[in-house]
Amino acid sequence: GEVCTMINKKYSEFLPSMQSAEELVSQVDGLSSNIDLLRAGIENEVQRDLNVAVAEFTELKQQLERDTLVLSILKKLQEFDTAIKEYNTALLEKKYVAAAQQLEKARRSLKMLESRKGFELKILKALGTELTVQTQNVLYHLGEEWQKLVVWKLPPSKESTSLESVTHSELHLRTAPSKEEEIAGPPVAAVLQAFAVLGELHTKLKFFGQLLLKYILKPLISYPPLQPFTEEQSDVFILRFKSEEPNLDHSSPMEVFGKIKLVFEVLHKYLLNVPLEQPTEDKKESRVILAELLGDMIWEELSDCLIQNCLVNSIPTNSSKLEQYIEVIKSTEEFEKALKNMQFLKGDTTDLLKYARNVNSHFANKKCQDVIVAARNLMTSEIHNTVKITPDSCVALPRPPDPGADHLKMKKTSQLLRNDVVNLENETKLSRYTFSLPTCRISSSVEKLMELAYQTLLEATASTDQCCIQLFYSVRNIFQLFYDVVPTYHKENLQKLPQLAAIHHNNCMYIAHHLLTLGHQFRYRLTNILCDGAATFVDLVPGFRRLGMECFLAQMRVQKGEILERLSSARNFSNMDDEENYCAANKAIRQVLHQLKRLGKVWQDVLPVNVYCKAMGTLLNTALTEIVTRIAALEDISAEDADRLYSLCRTMVEEGPQVFTPLPEEDKNKKYQEEVPVYVRKWMTFRELMIILQANLQEIVDQWADGKGPLAAEFSAAEVKSLIRALFQNTERRAAALAKIK
C-alpha cells in the first residue's frame, strides 16, 4: 500500500509539470506559425515597397542632377549672351579692352559648354561661329586703330632695300589723338592691351619687328651714310633718314651703336613704354614688358647683323692697333647697358659683347684668313713671271729676338741674312755653302709667298700666345695649301710646258730649302709656346722635294717619249742605200736635235746648271741609246749603208753637245759642251759604234784586244760578232776575226 501511495504522490507531482510542458509546446507552435506568416508578409509586401522607394529616390536624384545641369547650361548660355551684348556696347564706344575682355568671357563660357560630355547641343556650333566672327571683327577694328597709331611710309618697291630706297622710309608714331575724330581715339596702351587680351600681341609685335629690322635697323648698320633724325609735331613723332657723305667704307661701331640706340629710345618713349597685363591659363594676370617682348623677337638677328657688318670690319689687321680696340669693347658694353635700361635686353652678356671681348681670337682668325687668302692668290697667279736667285740672294729675315728680352716690346729690326750663312746658336758658323741654293729662276709669286711666311712668323713672335700659335699654324697651312693647290691648279700647263715644269721644280726646291731653317730663326719665341720644339717646318721638306722632282720627271718622261716617237720614223736605220730610207732617218735625227735644242733654250738660265746638264744629258742619252740599239740589231749593212750610218752618227756627235746651253752668255757654255761625255752615259758606246762602222776587220780585233780594249768596255762579245757578220761577207778572214772575239 505504501508503494502505491508513493507512486500516486510522484505521479500527482508529475502530471501538472507535464501539462505545463505541453502548453509551452503548443505556445511555441503558435508563435512559430505567426513568424512564418510575418516572414511571408515581409517577403511579399514590405520588401516590394522598399524597392519601389529606393528606385523612386534614385530617379528623383537623377532628375535633380539633370535639372541642375540644364540650369548651369542655361546659365552659361545666358553668360555667353550677356558677354556678347556687353561686347557690342563696348565696341561701339571704342572701349577695346572691355570689348576684348567680354569676348574672352564669352569664349570661356563656350569652352565650359563644349566640355559637357554627352550633351552635344546643335546651338554650340552656331555660338562658336558667332564668337569667331566677333573676334575677327574686333581684331579688324584694332588693326585699323593700330595703323593710325603706327604709320609706316615705305618705298614703293617692296623688294629693294637699297640705300636710295631706304632713305625714303619713315615711321610715324601718334602721340596724341587727332583733332578731327569726334571721340578721341583710344591711346596706344588700350589698343595693345586689347591685343594682349585676345592673344594677338605677339603676332602684331613680330610683324612690327620684321619691318623695323628690314627698313630701319639693318640699313643703319649696312649703310654708313645713313643718319636717323627725328621730328616732333603736335600729335605725331616722325623718325626718318638723311643720307650724308661717308668718310669711310665702314662706320665705326661707336657710330652704329649711337644710331641704333636713338631708334630704340624713340620706340621706348613713344610706343613701348606701356604697362600691360597678359591673361595666363591659371587666371593670374601677369605683367608684360613690351620692350622685352620686342627685344626677344629681334635681338638675335640684330646682333648677328651688328657682328657681321660692323664688328667684323672693326677687328684690326695688325697687332699694334689691338690696344685701341678697348674703345670698341667699352662702347659695346655701354650700348648693351642702355638697351637693358630700356628693358629691350634682359640677362647678362650677349653674343655681341662676347664677340667684341674675344677680339684677340678674332684678330688671329682674321689675320690667318688674310694670310691664307693672300697665299692662295699668289699660288693661283702665273708661274712664268720669274726672278733669279743666287747663292748670295738675300731674303729679309728678322733678327731672332734675344731669349731674355721682352718679346712684345722688342723692336722689329730686320736684318738681311745671307741665304747661305745661318748662325747656329750664334757661334758655330757652317760652311758658306751648307745651306746655299744654286743659281736658278723661281716664280716671283713664290718669292712673295716666302716673304709672307716670314712676315707672318715675325708678327706671331710679337703676338699673344694664342694668336702666336694660330699664326704659326697658318704659316704651316700656307705650305700645305701650296702642296695641294699648285699641282692641281696648274696641272695642264705643268704637263704641256717644259719651262713651267722646270720653274715649278725650282719653286719646290726653293721652298724646301727655306723650310729647313724657317722654324730655327723664330725658335726662342715659338718653342716656349709650342710643345717640345714643335716650331719646325723640317717635316715638310721631303714632301716638297718629292713634289718638285715628280713634276720634273713627268716632264722628262714626256720628252723621252717624243724622242723615241721621232726616231721610230727612221725605218730602223736599215737599207740606208735606199734614198727614201736615208731621208727618213736623216729627218728623224734632225727633228730630235731640234727638240733638244729647243729644250736647251727654254731651260736655259731657269734650271740650276747641274740639274740642267743632267736633264739634257739624260735626253741626249735616250736618243743615242736608241740609235745604237737599232744599228746593232741590223743583220746586213752594205758598205754604202755603213758610210751613211756613219754620217748620221757624226751629225749627232757634232751637234749633240751644242744643245747644252745652260747659261745665256754663249762663251760660258763651252765648258759644259766639252763635259758632255760626263752627262751622257752611252757617249763612248756611240763613239765605238762609229769606229766599227768605218773600221776593217783587223782594226776591230785590235779595238777588242782580247776583251781588254775600249770596244770591249762598251759592247758584249755577242754584239760585236753580230756587227761583224752584218758588215763583212763570210770569208776565212771573217771567221778568224770572229774566233778572236770572245
Give an account of the 3D structure:
Residues 2-84 form the Centromere/kinetochore protein zw10 N-terminal domain. This is Centromere/kinetochore protein zw10 homolog. InterPro entries: Zw10/DSL1_C_sf, ZW10_C, ZW10_C_2, Zw10_middle, Zw10_N. It is a peripheral membrane protein. The protein has 742 residues and is α+β, with helices and mostly antiparallel strands. Among the domains are: 20-135; 154-176 and 186-317, no CATH class. Helices cover 66% and strands 8% of the residues. The strands form five sheets. The chain has a four-stranded antiparallel β-sheet. It has a two-stranded antiparallel ribbon with strand order 5-6. A hairpin with a 5-residue loop joins β5 and β6. The model is unreliable at 179-184 and 398-433 (pLDDT under 50).
Q: What is the element layout, followed by pairings?
A:
Blueprint: H1 2-92, H2 96-115, H3 122-149, E1 150-153, H4 163-166, E2 170-174, H5 188-197, H6 201-222, E3 226-232, E4 236-243, H7 253-272, E5 275-279, E6 285-289, H8 290-314, H9 326-341, H10 351-357, H11 359-379, E7 386-389, E8 394-398, E9 414-418, E10 423-424, E11 428-429, E12 440-443, H12 444-461, H13 465-489, H14 491-496, H15 498-521, H16 523-529, H17 541-567, H18 579-602, H19 609-632, H20 639-655, H21 670-674, H22 676-679, H23 683-694, H24 697-704, H25 710-714, H26 717-727, H27 732-740
Antiparallel strand pairs: 1-2, 2-4, 3-4, 5-6, 7-12, 8-9, 10-11
Helix pairs in contact: 1-2, 2-3, 2-5, 3-5, 6-7, 6-8, 7-8, 7-9, 8-10, 9-10, 11-12, 11-13, 12-13, 15-17, 17-18, 17-19, 18-19, 18-20, 19-23, 20-23, 24-27
